[in-house]
Design goal:
By secondary structure, this protein is mainly α. The chain is built from one helix and no strands. The longest helix is centred in the last third of the chain and has 17 residues. The radius of gyration is 12 Å and the shape is elongated. The chain has one domain. Helix content is 47%, strand content 0%.
């Protein structure tokens, strides 16, 4: 979510981008790490 929400302050990680842009990058990186 590009905007702050009530959960932002309690989140361990905040991604300030639309999910359609950021989620594919996160998934791809997790897949790379799983191969190591």
């Amino acid at each position: 979510n590009p905007n702050e929400t009530p959960l932002t302050e309690v989140a361990d990680v905040v991604l300030r981008a639309p999910s359609g842009e950021s989620l594919p990058l996160v998934v791809a990186r997790l897949q790379e790490l799983a191969k190591e």
